[in-house]
Amino acid sequence: MAGRAAGPCVIVFFAGSAYDGVAGTDRHLADELSRQRPVLYVEPPCSVLTPLLRARPVAAIRASSMRSPALREERPGLWRLVPRVLPGAQRPGMHHVTTRWTRAKVRRAAARIGQPVTAAIATVSEDLLDAVAGVPTMYFVTDDGAAGAELLGLPRRRLLAAERRQAEAADVLAVVSPVLRERFAAMGLDAAVVPNGCSPDAYEGVDEAPWPDDVPRFDRPAAGFVGNLNGRLDLDLLEGVADAGHPLLLVGPRQPSCPAERFAALTARPNVVWTGMRPHTELPRYLRAITVGLTPYVLNDFNRASFPLKTLEYLAAGRAVVSTALPATDWLREDAEGAALIRVESSREAFVKAVGDELAAAAESGNTEPGKPEQNKGEHSMAGRRRAYAARHDWKHRAREIAGLLDQVGGPRDSGDQARSGR
């Protein structure tokens, strides 16, 4: 790549997750930005010892990254960098060395790509935005890291201090939820809210997608959850759905913060199917298998500040949604259409009843298998209304909002119209 001629300017995107991991805000936003402007996706630093020391599903993902070149072109317009650093990367004192190494590796990677850098975006609080000097910078906060310090396994005070430094140093501060905006406002910092989105086009053919090989054909409508199975989830709600006898499909890796014994007991039930992690491109096949999508998050400070992607993805696939009472869900329900499409309940009894009501409504309509044409076709059907609503929150709109914010401080201009998100 060293001999590549100069071309369009590159956005350096410091991500908080591996590109091949469970697809979250970082990957979706970087993918969409890369369709407007080339992007260098910088993964979290990884020690060469990580795959050997971490015997968990994510280790396999990172091990795959380690076998790949540190810098590679994923597809035209999108490069991926895995910064390889010394062991103990996040230990006190050592994390400063890790940050310096990462900045240096990013500068070398940008030079190898051979195209000028025009802006830098970080969704992490590490001091990385100055890796390329003289370009507009954005700190995009997608989670309340300090509230989730225990879940992340990092010191809360260090996260708070790093977060504030990053917010004050960046040219633009953006956050994913109104709760985060209020949090930064209390520090005297103004933040733009850019919520998560979805990719409606990816689920356009969900009802005709091949049935997943590792999921049995249910004899009645099923509920499902797609994403990381971790300490953020209220297992009591999932257990309640299973106790009620409903088929339950779980798609995603189990993280150590999810209680192992309880989760094993849940997935051992005959009406519960757990697939483990599956590639993001295969999710339409798994969403075909469910009628109701679940967002069963615990109501704590970390989750209140979040904006679960899965709620919009379920809607994009035309599925009913039952969620706990998160501020992000309330934001989606502020207009009459959103309120009609998302059921919100937080107690076990009410949550399970809402799931049962949605499944029963599907069964009464004759839809014993998700994807049945008479239920899911037509713009005036419930499935059509859900998809239309999700389309108003397309990642294309979110990427334009990000590009527009950078443009205000001299960053990349969006080649398309500055479309509104439809809110």
Automatic annotation (TrEMBL):
Gene Ontology molecular functions: glycosyltransferase activity
A Pfam family of this chain: Glyco_trans_1_4
Biased composition (Basic and acidic residues): 371-382
Keywords associated with the record: Glycosyltransferase, Transferase
Gene3D superfamilies named in the record: Glycogen Phosphorylase B (3.40.50.2000)
The keyword Disulfide bond belongs to this UniProt entry's keyword annotation: no
Coiled-coil ranges (or none): none
Annotated Basic residues bias: 383-399
The protein's Enzyme Commission number: 2.4.-.-
Region of interest (Disordered), residue spans: 362-423
Signal sequence interval, chain numbering: none
Protein name, entry field: Teichuronic acid biosynthesis glycosyltransferase TuaH
UniProt organism field: Actinopolymorpha cephalotaxi
